Amino acid sequence: MSDLSKFLEGIDNLSHRERVEEVFDWIHNKYPKLEIEIKWNQPMFTDHGTFIIGFSVSKKHLAVAPESVTITHVEDEIVKAGYDYTKEIIRMPWKSPIDYALLEKMIEFNIKDKANCSTFWRK
Fold first, then answer.
1. Could you say which DSSP state residue 36 is in?
2. What is the architecture, at CATH level 2, of domain 2-108?
3. What is the Cα–Cα distance from 105 to 101, expressed in whole angstroms?
């Protein structure tokens, strides 16, 4: 957790830091079995050593990275939420509300889809 604290302390904008903490607290409370790790200077949640979802922070948004298969799976919901996205990340603007139902759908999909995955990333 000290690595997570260092990551959070590195977010200069206090409201952005609080938003990230809120999201991470929500994930931790809803999915207590997920582990949080810092890899490539980004916080990631894992399940039995496999990647579930990752985050990064920029000036304009919180970037969510659930893997491209997951983005394809929830693409309609991303569009409905009004988020900009690529095949690898979803950009949640700081001024927009967090769509927790979308986060839940992505996390649930990855937990179920990767239940028997023995690698960090999908192959």
1. E
2. Alpha-Beta Complex (3.90)
3. 6
Strand-pair partners of 62: 57, 92
User: Where would I find the H helices in the chain?
Assistant: 2-9, 14-30, 68-73, 75-81, 100-113
Question: CA geometry: angle at 17 spanning 107 and 32, to 5°?
Answer: 35
Query: pTM for this one?
Result: 0.95
Work out the end-to-end distance of the chain between its first and last CA atoms, rounded to an integer number of angstroms. 29
- Here the tokens at position 23 are 């999201």
pLDDT at 3: 83
CA–CA separation, 67 and 65 (whole Å): 6
Both structure tokens of 109: 């999909």
Q: Which residues pair with 84 in a beta bridge?
A: 91
Residue 32's pLDDT is 97
The domain limits of the chain are 2-108
pLDDT tens digits for range 58-98: 999 999 999 999 999 999 999 999 999 999 999 999 999 99
What pLDDT, on a 0 to 100 scale, did the predictor assign at position 117? 96
